[in-house]
Amino acid sequence: LYLTYLLALCLGLLCVIFVVYWNATWRGGFAWDGSAMQFNWHPVLMVTGLTVLYGKAAVLYRLPLTWGGSKLPWKLLHASLTLLSFLLAVLGLIAVFDFHNKGHTPNLYSLHSWIGISTVALFTGQWLLGLASFLLPCTPLELRRRAKPLHVWLGSTIFILGIAASVSGINEKLIFSLKGNNGTAQYSALPQEAQFANMLGVLIVVFGLAVLRILSNQAWQRPE
User: Fold this and answer.
1) pLDDT per residue rounded down to tens, the chain (224 residues)
2) CA 84 → CA 22, 114, 200, distances in Å?
3) Which of 44, 88, 120, 144 has its CA at 20 to 30 Å from residue 79's CA atom?
């Protein structure tokens, strides 16, 4: 468990470093002025929030140090991490919608955008379900018991969809950007930027597999 968790921690950190470096080095850096540099916040915030931070929150209860004593502090930490993940994802959506609107670019027409917006919508419902079922003291225990399997299943589903959205978004950005004009090589020629961004996608997938390995092992679940 701890080796897999350490692997997930390292992979998650690498994902964040890679996505920041990619956009800072090849995509021109960051700004909030409606330019392409504002768009660069979108992949950084989505990978950091919807994939890495969400994955960390998902495996929190698998750590044995969370099994003893009161569960409430860990519930609050789990809720806080997922809320931060959600806020980063929403900010990432604001960045891309604002960039598209200022450039008169259509929104929500690609498969990537459909997966991404569906993931955030499910995330919204998931967080509200968790708040109502597990944090409100007036919630009946029977309702908590019935809601738990749905909450766990939705959590894994959202995480997988977040990975799919991140990887498809990286691929879409490379296809749109590396067309062989404006001094860039074609994506099919696999220039250095394409190699680096493809590796980012691979890191995200491997990070996802490590997190899912932790979530799927029954022996690593918190005892009732």
Assistant:
1) 999 999 999 999 999 999 999 999 999 999 999 999 999 999 999 999 999 999 999 999 898 888 888 888 999 999 999 999 999 999 999 999 999 999 999 999 999 999 999 999 999 999 999 999 999 988 898 998 999 999 999 999 999 999 999 999 999 999 999 998 877 789 999 999 999 999 999 999 999 999 999 999 988 887 77
2) 23, 22, 22
3) 44
Residue 91 in tokens: 């900010």
List of residues 6+ apart from 63 with CB closer than 8 A: 1, 5
3-state secondary structure at position 103: coil
132 burial type by CB count under 10 A (0-12 exposed, 13-18 middle, 19+ buried): middle
